[in-house]
Amino acid sequence: MKLDSAGLEILTGQECLDLLASTPLGRIVFTDRALPAVQPVNFCLSRGDVVIRTGIGSKLAAAARDAVVAFEADEFDASLQTGWSVTAVGHARAVSEPAEIARLSCLPLVPWAPGSHDHFIVMTPEQISGRRIRTGVPAQPRRP
Question: CATH number for the 9-134 domain, one of 2.40.30.10, 2.60.40.10, 2.30.38.10, 2.30.110.10?
Answer without folding.
Answer: 2.30.110.10
